Amino acid sequence: MAAVSASMVKELRERTGLGMMECKKALNEADGNIDLAIENLRKASGLKAEKKAGRTAADGVVAVKVADDGAYAVVVEVNSETDFAARDTGFLAFVDTALEAAFNAKSDDVAALLAAGLEETRQALVQKIGENIGLRRVQVVEGGVLGAYVHSNSKIAVVVSLEGGSAEVAKDVAMHVAAVNPRVVSPEDMPDEELAKEKEIIKAQPDMAGKPDNIVEKMMVGRVNKFLKENSLVQQPFVKNPDVTVGQLVKDAGATVKSFIRFEVGEGIEVAEADFAAEVAAQVAASKK
User: Fold this and answer.
1) Residue at 274 is within a domain
2) Whole domain around residue 34: which residue ranges?
3) At what angle do helices 213-231 and 192-203 cross, to 10 degrees?
4) For residue 109, is it within any domain?
5) How far apart are CA 272 and CA 60, in angstroms?
6) Residue 167 placed within a domain
7) How many CB atoms lie within 10 A of CB 29?
8) What is the pLDDT along the chain (289 residues), one digit of tens a residue?
9) How far apart are CA 243 and CA 236, in angstroms?
């Protein structure tokens, strides 16, 4: 067996980003052949990625890119298991790569983007970081005057499309959406099922009990209207100037709100509560085998 030198380990670490012991082990198994070691590590990364695929990745970051001419924008969410991994430089580089790939392809087809080369990069990152990493979703926004905002912690990203106005106004509205999280643009956009659910909640409130139907109906109307006002973007007080609504803000700018999208990291992902003691015990038991 060929001797594995420190310089060989250093070179393999620089080329793969892996730890010293893993590189040394790979070189020993490849009899000192660096290219073979890399090939073996790439094969192993697929197995490691597969093993980690069942673990919940609910942390991560979001990112946005708007075309220079403002014609379209792309938003992506890339997930990790922990915030620590989400701050890793390799992870953030993968986010940039995924965003560029989606932007250049002008595509929100996650499967197609992965198949076009991102999957290999993702698996290598899983091997390096040791966590499940996933490109969860991508959305392309076209048309209108676009404005984007990403919150400073990269956990919330918003793109707003206006009819008329300017990109600066659209960005202000996007900042508002990030902070307040409206459900719809205007009251008439509220889905029927959401409205029906809210009405059921209102009817079940204690002060509704025992009242005549006509009184209940009047109370329902007032509370439903309040719900719609609080959850409709154009009727909300603008976060930077509560004296005006968002609707008035854009109207004064000669615009109307066409649409918005808001990505928040991990929204809708169910995370099972981990039994830390059991997890540690399992790891200790596995290490003794």
Assistant:
1) no
2) 6-52
3) 130
4) yes
5) 17
6) no
7) 15
8) 578 888 888 887 766 666 677 788 888 888 888 888 877 776 665 445 444 555 656 799 999 999 999 999 999 999 998 888 899 999 999 999 999 999 999 999 999 999 999 999 998 888 888 888 999 999 999 999 999 999 988 999 999 999 999 999 999 999 999 999 999 999 999 999 999 988 888 888 888 888 888 888 888 889 999 999 999 999 999 999 999 999 999 999 999 999 999 999 988 876 655 454 555 555 555 555 5
9) 10
Q: What is the CATH number of the domain that holds 45?
A: 1.10.8.10
Residue 182 contacts residue 227 (beta carbons within 8 Å): no
Last residue of a domain, one of 15, 32, 52: 52
Tokens standing for residue 91: 């992870």
Residue 33 burial (CB count, 10 A): 15
Instruction: Enter the tokens of residue 112.
Output: 């197609």
- Quick one: how far is CA 165 from the chain centroid? 28
Token pair 């790979």 in the structure block, residue: 26
